[in-house]
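Morning F.,

Quick status update on the modeling queue. The single chain you submitted on Monday has been processed. Sequence for confirmation:
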Amino acid sequence: MLIAEDLLLLAYDDESGKPGIDSTRLEYGLAGALLLELSLLGKVAVAGEGEAVKRDRLVVRDTSPVGDDVLDRALAELADDEGKKPKNVLGSLRKGVRDLLLRRLAERGLLREESGTLLGIFPITRWPAADASHEAAVRQRLQDVLVTGLEPDPRTAALVSLLLAVDGLRKAVPSDDRRAVKRRAKEISEGAWAADAVKKAVQEVQAAVTAAIVGAGAAAAAGGS
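Structure tokens below.
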């Protein structure tokens, strides 16, 4: 399972099949998850001093296929975008990835695709859980890390960082002490769970999500004026 797939399962309500995270946040989060996964695999990084590209720009370390069609497609796109700021590649990276992953999760039997209409006119698709066992295991791991205080592995730490970025902690980890969960998530996001290049990628994802939300809010305000 990809980090992006875990994020998607956590974002969708098991019963209603609707996302519980703002769509713009979610799609940028999914793009960020692909970037982080490729960073953890050593395929891409954020450049330091003395690199072939400018410092803090995207650098591709290895273009050989991962063996996963979604990651390989993302890697090919990032190879074309080498030298750009990581936050500036997420916009193109997010295109179509949510639908692609939803259908893949349905093919694996984890989600169920249900088509219908809104107000009897507008077509909609819902994605309720078909088998929630994997999602339950991910939630338990997050609970252990964010509430119990266990140390996270790099993939769980990446998922925590993404949930923090897309404001998805409340849905993923129900708790009576929201502040403590968020504080712990920030500690993990800033901790020593990954190399500096990967942590820089996390920061870029968080910045991109924030910028996207601000931009969407400004556009909505301009359209309503």
